[in-house]
Amino acid sequence: MSRRKLRETAAGYLFLLPTLLVIGTFLLVPIVYALFLSFHKVQLLGGISYRFIDIGNYTRMIDDDRVWIALYNTFEYALIVVPLQTALAILLAAVLNSKLRGRNAFRVLYFLPTVTSSAVLTLIFMWIFKTDGLLNDLLGFFGFPAFNWLGDPKVALKAIMLMNVWSTAPYFMVIYLAALQDIPDSLYEAAEIDGARTLRKFWSITLPLLKPVTFFVVTMGIIGTFQLFDQAYIFSNGSGGPNNSTLTVVLLIYQYAFKNLDMGYAASLAVMLAAVIMLITVIQRRLFGEEKLN
Amino acid sequence: MWDHKGVRITLRIIQYAILISYAVITFIPFLWALSASFKTLAEISTGEPNFIPKVFTLDNYKQIFIDEPLFPRWFGNSSFVAVVVLGLNLLFNSMAGYALARFNFPGNKLMFFGILAVLMIPGQLTLIPSYMILNEFGWLNSFQGLIVPSAVNATFIFMMRQFFLSFPKDLEEAAEIDGMGRFGTFFRIALPLAGPALAAQAVFIFMGSWNDFMRPLVIMSEKAMFTLPLGLNTFKGQYYSFWNLIMAASMVFTLPALILFIFFNRFFVQGITFSGIK
Question: What's the pTM value of the predicted model, to 2 decimals?
Fold first, then answer.
C-alpha cells in the first residue's frame, strides 16, 4: 500500500472511530447478547449468572396467556390504526397538493401532534377522555352515549387508537405530499384532454402511481404499531390495564425485563418481535425499495 | 370539458371544508390543554366545556416552578441531555458520513452496508442487553448512560454521506492543494457548507432526545435524574386529578420543541421526506 493510501485509510477509520465504538458497544454487542440471553435463564441478584435452557424461553411463550393477549391487542391495533391513518394521510395530502391559498399554514398546523412528545399527547388525551371530559361532552351534545374511556376494558385500547391515528396521519401525509409533487403534470394534462374528472384522475392516475409510497407507508405504519409502548405505558401506569386491554407486545417485554427481572425470557420475546419487524422491512425493500444509493 | 366551472367551485369548497375541519380536529386538544393550564382547580372540577377560563390564573405555572423543585430540575436535565446528544450527533454523524463519501479505503463499502443494515434493527432488541451493558459500566442512572448510546445515528450518517456525495469536490481539492490536512478540510471547508443537512439533522435529533420516553424510563431510577417526559408521568401519579397542574407542565414541556419547529419546519419536512425516500 502506498504512503498516501495508508494515510487515507488511517483518516477514514479515525473519522469513523466514534461511530464504530458506539454502534459496536450499544448495537452489535447487544444483538449477540440478546440472542445469548434468549437461550438462558438469567439470575440478576447477587451477581449475574446464566443457566443454559436451550429453547426453553421460546417454548414458554406458547403457554403464556399474556403473550397471546399482547399479540391479539397489537394485531387488533395495527389492523384498525394502519388503514385509517393511511387513508387519512392520502386524503389530506391530496387536498393539500392542489393549489389552494394558505396550504402552507395548514401543513404547519397539521404537524403539531408530530412534534409533540408522546407523553404530553397521552396526558392531554387522558384529560380529554375523562368520564366527565371533553370527548364525552361532545358525544353527549350529538346524542351519543358516554364511555368510560380510561377504565372500561372494551374501549381503552380504542381510545389509544384514536389518539394514534390523529397524531401519526400528518407524518405520513408529508411523505405522500413529497411523492405527489414528483408526479409530472404532463400526465394529468393528457388526462384532461380526454376529459377526465378530478376524482377519476385521482383514482386512475394518482393512486396507482402512489403504490410504492403506500406500500412504504403501510409497512412503516405496521412497524410503528408493533412498537407501541409510551402511550400504553402512560395510559395504564405500566400495567397494561384495565384487565390487560392495553397490554402491547413491547409493554409485555418491558414488564418481564424490568418488573419481573426475567431478562432471558424478555430477551426471547424481543428477539421474536425484532424478527417479525425485520422480515416486514425486508419484504418491503425487496418489493418496492429501489434504494437510490449511489 | 370546460362546462364544469360549477364543479370546480364545489370542489374548492369541499377541499377547504376538509382542510378547515381537520385543522380544528388537530388544534382542539392543544387549545383545551392550554385553557386548562390557566384555569383554577375549582373550575376544572366542574367539567364544563368552556375554552375561555372564567377566572384566568397563572398560579399553575407558578406552582410547578416554585413549589415543585424537581420540575425545573427535570427541565434542566432534558435540556442538558438534548443539547449534548445534538452536539455529538452533528459532529460524529458528519465525520462518519464524510469518510464514507470521500475517503477511498479498504472496508469503506463494508462499513456503508453495515450502517444500512443497522438501520433495520428495531430498538426493542437492543434495549435489554444495552441495559445490562450499562449496568456493567456502572452507567445506570447517569447522564452518560443516556447520552453515549445515542451519540451517533445511522439514519443521519447515511443522510450525510448522500449529502457529501452530491456535493462538488472542487473546493476540498483546492484546500488539499493548499496543504490543508484532511481534518482541516473537513472542519473548515466541508462542514460549513453542509448547513442545510445539519439543520435537518439537528431538528430531528433534538426532538428525538427531548421527547424520548422509553430509554430514560429504563435507565434513570432516581427522581432527580428524570427527564421531562418521565417527570410528567410521575406528576400524573402525584397530582392525580390536578389536571390544571399537569396541563401547565405539559405546555412548558411542549414550548421548546414547538419554537424549534416553527423556525425550522422546512428542515423538518426535508428530514421526513428523506427517510421516506431512503
Answer: 0.92
CA angle B151, B183, A3 (to 5 degrees): 120
DSSP at B224: G
pLDDT exceeds cutoff 80 at A26: yes
Interface predicted TM-score of the whole assembly (ipTM), two decimals: 0.90
- B contacts of A135 (beta carbons < 8 Å): none
Residues 8-37 of A with CB under 8 A from B: 8-9, 11-13, 15-16, 18-19, 22-23, 25-27, 29-31, 33-34, 37
**Range with the poorest average pLDDT among A157-161, A193-197, A276-280:** A193-197
Over residues B171-204, the pLDDT tens digits come to 888 887 888 888 888 998 899 889 888 988 898 8
Is there a contact between B125 and A34 if contact means CB atoms under 8 Å apart? yes
Side chain identity, residue A150: L
Q: How far apart are CA B49 and CA B42, in angstroms?
A: 14
Residues of chain A neighbouring B120 (CB-CB closer than 8 A): 278, 281-282
Closest-CA residue of chain A to B113:
A293
Write out pLDDT tens, residues B146-160. 999 999 999 999 999
Residue B37 cell numbers, joined: 393550564
d(CA A56, CA A207): 48
B186 — contact with chain A (CB < 8 Å)?
Answer: yes
Taking the mean position of all CA atoms in its chain, how far away is CA B251? 16
Q: Which of A26, A130, A133 sits opposite B126 (nearest CB)?
A: A26
Residues paired with residue A43 on neighbouring β-strands, in sequence order: A49
Inform me whether the pLDDT recorded for B2 exceeds 60.
Answer: no
Q: Does B51 touch chain A (CB under 8 A)?
A: no
Angle, vertex CA A217, rays to CA A212 and CA A220, nearest 5: 125
Q: What region, left, alpha or beta, does residue A183 occupy, with left being phi > 0 and alpha being psi -120 to 50 degrees?
A: beta
Decide: B115 and B158 in contact? Cβ < 8 Å. yes
Mean of per-residue pLDDT scores for chain B: 89
> Which of the 8 DSSP states describes residue A42?
E
User: B236 and A270 in contact by Cβ < 8 A?
Assistant: no
Q: Measured on CA atoms in the order A227, A233, A236, A238, is the torsion positive or negative?
A: positive
Per-residue pLDDT reduced to its tens digit, A234-264: 999 999 989 999 999 999 999 999 999 999 9
